[in-house]
Amino acid sequence: xxxxxxxxxxxxxxxxxxxxxxxxxxxxxxxxxxxxxxxxxxxxxxxxxxxxxxxxxxxxxxxxxxxxxxxxxxxxxxxxxxxxxxxxxxxxxxxxxxxxxxxxxxxxxxxxxxxxxxxxxxxxxxxxxxxxxxxxxxxxxxxxxxxxxxxxxxxx
Length: 156
Hints:
The chain has helices spanning 15-29, 58-65, 67-86, 127-145; strands at residues 3-4, 34-41, 46-51, 95-98, 102-109, 113-120. It is of the alpha+beta class.
C-alpha cells in the first residue's frame, strides 16, 4: 500500500497533507512503475512522499538521510530556474533526467516547493501529455499551500 506522511509525524495526516497526499498519488498514477513521489521544500526538507516500498514516515526519513540526493534536487531546481531565465521564461514547468533504467522528473510548485518523482523508464510514453497533467496537479498543490509554510514535525 502506498503511503504519504509528514516526516516524523507519529499520527494521521492533517487535512492539508491529506490533500497533498491525494495529489501525489495522482502524479504517481501517471507514470509507469513509479518508485517514489515527494513534495520537497526548496531548502531541501522532504515534507511528504508516496512509495509502494515503505511504511508511513520511513521513505521521507530515508530521502532526508541521503543528503547528496536532496542537495542535488535543490541544485536541479536552481539550475532549471537559471535555464528558464536564459530562455526568457519565468520558470521551467517540468524537468526530466533519463538514465539507463531510471527516469527522474522535477516539477516546481510555486517558489517554495517542488514535486519529484522517480520511476522506471517510460519507454514509448508521451511525456508531453503527462507533463501537462502533472502541471495541473502541481497548480492544485500550489493553491493548497498558498499562504502556508508547512514543515516537518521535527522543525515545528
